[in-house]
Write a structure and sequence with these properties.
mainly alpha, membrane, 9 helices
């Protein structure tokens, strides 16, 4: 694999991952209400969802994915419904949650993050557009596919962890009960906004 053009993948992907969107808005809301550590499963789900779309694009299945648009529309609306459900729960909180300690909560975080990124099939179009400029997709081996996927995961995870760190600092600055309640409602508003953005796509 000729890696001389690898920056044609790294730079656009890093920029796209860093640009604030519904995923980042939801992540910030999640961190503010649940804390940084409890939001790691959510980030894992986000990164996992993007990795799925990346693999789909690498394997040349973009056209096939778009052909089964109905299935992805169902996933999209499931994701939107789940975001609205989480937003409603956040709105009803009067204080910040300090932990999400059970395995069930970890599973919910991964599920929420995955649904959020998988509900936006336009990601596969983005990957399909930038990958051919960086790699010759017709001659990639499985080892190279794994390498590109891991590279994408590292880029995505690094950027989302920066968002987590920034939101965690904001959360630590919040002291009063009134402010805590406002944070939860702001977080709920962020999630509703993100759900609306996804619904309009």
């Amino acid at each position: 694999m000729d890696i001389s053009n690898i920056w044609y993948f790294i730079i656009p992907f890093a920029i796209a991952a860093a640009i604030p969107g519904p995923a980042q808005g939801t992540l910030i809301g999640h961190v503010l209400s649940h804390g940084g550590r409890s939001s790691i499963p959510f980030i894992s789900g986000m990164v996992l969802g993007n990795a799925v779309w990346l693999i789909v694009a690498i394997l040349g299945l973009a056209a096939l994915a778009l052909r089964f648009e109905t299935a992805f529309i169902i996933v999209k609306w499931l994701g939107i419904a789940y975001l609205l459900f989480i937003a409603w729960k956040m709105w009803s909180l009067d204080k910040l949650q300090t932990k999400m300690s059970t395995e069930k909560s970890v599973g919910k975080g991964v599920l929420t993050g995955s649904l959020l990124t998988l509900s936006n099939p336009k990601a596969v179009i983005f990957f399909g557009a930038i990958l051919p400029h960086a790699f010759d997709l017709t001659v990639l081996s499985w080892t190279q596919v794994v390498f590109i996927t891991i590279l994408g995961i590292v880029i995505d995870l690094s950027i989302q962890l920066l968002y987590l760190a920034a939101a965690s600092k904001i959360r630590k600055a919040i002291k009063s009960e009134k402010a805590m309640k406002q944070v939860n409602r702001t977080s709920a508003g962020l999630m509703v906004t993100c759900a609306g953005w996804l619904a309009s796509r």
